[in-house]
Design brief:
By secondary structure, this protein is of the alpha+beta class. It is built from 24 helices and 22 strands. A 5-stranded mixed beta sheet has the order 2-11-10-3-9. It starts with a helix and ends with a helix. The structure holds 2-(butylsulfanyl)adenosine.
């Protein structure tokens, strides 16, 4: 049996490799007949020993043909983001909170490392084999991009080394080197395709390709810097983890340094600021992390950020260039934004030819004129902006710019409401708004309808077939055939993609509606809170304001959106068109421990504290490190700490490990 199992492993790994050569690199090493022989042998062995069949066996799935959508992948431990510090004082304040949180007696060692500007992913290795990879998504649920990640040469199919863990979730950043990014954009320009705004967008765009061959043609790298759930190895600190990852053949982030004091942190920051210009990849700051994992555990996390880490950002980069012209763009919500067309200039390794001027008040205040030399700024992940003019370089030919009184797209009236800085086109069927809205609606994080590109949207709007997003669900194949570049097959694909999108869950639909200030995270919070779209429509302003994580401004725009009869009509039509408004599955609230809060103290004999916490979360419960009246159970292992006495004081129920195992069985 053991020998069979080894042979099966061997065959699977060979077949996976050849799938990769064939489907992704387009460069097979063996003939079809040879490949078929491997497959046949594997099938026969699996038929004889069905207990050895695993869901990831190549017999259980096809190679990697392009897929229509990405499957959702819930993260067993949420992928958090990081809080930011922009100066030394903010770093000091964070450090004070850390020290306070740990009790002043602990000495806290930190690790400083570069903050990469790419796309966060999680890789899962089972028994040493790379089985799954996903994007961060909204932190709770990501997208399955396994086959795309397989095209990245830094990601080994098998772990190597002496101590391969049974199960490993490892996290890091997929990024594109600056040189590769410029090369890609040159190619995109030659082919008349869309340019990427920065290396981060290029990395994310390349990773989220439905056809892995496209990803394979882009040059991506990965640096790993964190782990999720692990079984079969014990890791006590960040530095030990990075070392262990390297020993497993994984590419752990480089330039990580231990810092004993904030002085050392600031030295590291200054050193990296200088080095930054020479690095092949984009770094937008440093990340500071408490080194020891037990201390991290003690500190815990806030809703979206751990308390044990912080990003200390670099100042944005600036350059001087000339404004050639000023365009006015109309956004999804009708907002008119002045955008400067620039003489192309390189800012921190990236060429910029457009930058936002925000709004007319800012332009007037800064006195920015057409033809001016200006300072432009690029901060890692935001759109480049014009900071200020350089009046000393004026020749007298510069001209003041006036915002148009009518919409540059539909010529409708443009208004500026009381208290708002922006002018807005009031025509809700303004093609610019409709176009952008539909584009947003169909985009990946939203309804994810493949093939609905700007050209198609334009044509459909022109023909009056699309007045708002709900019209998508009433399109007929015959209406599509005959449009430019639209044959029977592509029309069918679009109809199929629209059909598939009817299944999207409420959270995505809320996001897709494009309500001002409602991003993916807020959409998820609303979906979880209200459960159905009707409940959300009925929500009173106070109810919205009462939700944790939703501020008054967001509550206001959400409320206003659903008060609008036109918008409610759109929801009705979406339903009529077949959109199911599937309720979201609460990642952390499905199981039998739904809503039950656990805290642990002391040592458990059958599993580590991490494992116990994961178990609780998998069953829908909450596991936290701080005890309060809201805690349902304190699980006391051997040698419990001071929490035991506190639990008794607070009246929190204390249970032992045996009882815990019964509860979680
Ligand atoms: S640690 C819970 N380390 O920055 C902490 N993140 O702004 C998990 N990032 O979502 C993140 N470089 O995508 C960590 N050295 C680094 C990083 C890093 C870049 C990204 C990561 C995260 C985002 C937060």
């Amino acid at each position: 049996m053991k020998e069979v199992s080894i042979r099966i492993q061997e065959l699977r790994s060979q077949i996976n490799y050849h799938n990769y050569r064939y489907y992704i690199l387009d460069d097979p090493e063996i003939s079809d007949a040879q490949y078929d022989r491997l497959m046949r042998e594997l099938r026969e062995l699996e038929k004889e020993y069905p207990s050895l069949i695993t869901s990831d066996s190549p017999t259980q799935r096809a190679g990697a043909p392009p897929s229509k959508t990405f499957d959702p992948v819930p993260h067993t431990i949420p992928m958090l983001s990081l809080g930011n510090a922009f100066d030394r004082d903010e770093v000091k304040e964070w450090m004070e909170r850390v020290v306070r949180g740990l009790g002043a007696t602990e000495k806290v060692g930190l690790v400083a490392e570069p903050k990469l500007d790419g796309c966060a992913v999680e890789l899962v290795y089972e028994g040493g084999l790379f089985v799954r990879g996903s994007t961060r998504g909204d932190g709770a649920v990501g997208e399955d991009v396994t086959w795309n990640l397989k095209t990245i040469k830094d990601i080994p199919t098998w772990l190597s080394g002496k101590h391969v863990p049974n199960y490993l979730e490892v996290r890091g950043e997929v990024y594109m080197e600056l040189g590769k990014f410029e090369q890609l954009n040159r190619k995109q320009a030659e082919r008349g395709e869309k340019l990427f705004a920065n290396p981060r967008n290029a990395a994310a765009g390349s990773l989220r390709q439905l056809d892995p061959k496209v990803t394979a043609s882009r040059s991506l790298n990965i640096f790993l810097y964190d782990v999720g759930q692990i079984r079969g190895i014990e890791l006590e600190s960040h530095l030990k983890m990075l070392k262990a990852l390297n020993e497993l053949g994984l590419r752990a982030i480089g330039r990580a340094e231990f810092c004993e004091s904030l002085e050392e942190v600031f030295e590291y920051y200054d050193k990296l600021t200088e080095e930054r210009e020479k690095l092949a990849f984009e770094v937008d700051g440093i990340v500071l992390k408490v080194n020891r994992f037990d201390l991290r555990q003690k500190l815990g996390a806030r809703t979206r950020e751990p308390r044990w880490a912080i990003a200390y950002k670099f100042p944005p980069r600036e350059e001087a260039t000339k404004i050639i012209d000023i365009d006015v763009q109309v956004g999804r919500t009708g907002t008119l934004t002045p955008v400067a067309k620039l003489q192309p200039v390189r800012v921190g390794g990236v060429t910029i030819s457009r930058a936002t001027l925000h709004n007319e008040d800012q332009m007037a205040e800064k006195d920015i004129r057409m033809g001016d030399y200006v300072i432009v700024r690029r901060a890692g992940d935001v759109i480049p902006e014009v900071v200020k003019p350089i009046p000393g370089r004026r020749t007298g030919k510069e001209r003041k710019f006036k915002m148009p009184r009518t919409c540059p797209v539909c010529s409708a009236e443009v208004i500026r409401s009381e208290g708002e800085v922006a002018r807005r086109c009031i025509n809700i069927s303004c093609p610019a708004q409709v176009e952008r809205w539909i584009k947003h609606f169909a985009s990946r994080g939203a309804m994810d309808i493949e093939g609905i590109g700007p050209k198609l949207i334009d044509q459909l709007i022109e023909r009056g077939l699309l007045k708002n997003v709900s019209d998508l669900y009433f399109l007929k194949k015959e209406q599509l055939i005959g449009l430019q570049r639209m044959a029977e097959k592509s029309a069918q694909n679009i109809i199929d993609a629209i059909e598939a999108s009817k299944d999207r869950n409420l959270s995505r639909i809320i996001y897709a509606l494009g309500i001002r200030h409602v991003g993916e995270h807020v959409a998820r919070v609303l979906a979880e809170e209200f459960g159905t779209v009707d409940a959300l429509i009925r929500a009173k302003l106070e109810e919205l304001e009462g939700i944790h994580e939703i501020g008054p401004i967001v509550a206001g725009t959400v409320h206003e959106f659903f008060r609008n009869e036109g918008n409610r009509e759109i929801i009705r039509r979406l339903k009529e068109g077949g959109v199911k408004f599937r309720p979201v599955e609460k990642v952390a609230a499905r199981g039998k421990l739904s809503g039950v809060a656990f805290v642990f103290t002391g040592t458990l004999s059958s599993m580590s504290r991490d494992e116990a916490q994961v178990r609780v979360k998998e069953l829908g419960g909450k596991a936290s490190s701080s005890l309060s009246r809201k805690t349902d159970y304190l699980v006391a292992g051997t040698e419990p700490g001071s929490k035991l006495a506190r639990a008794k004081k607070l009246g929190v129920k204390v249970i032992n490990e045996k009882k815990f195992l019964e509860l979680t069985e």
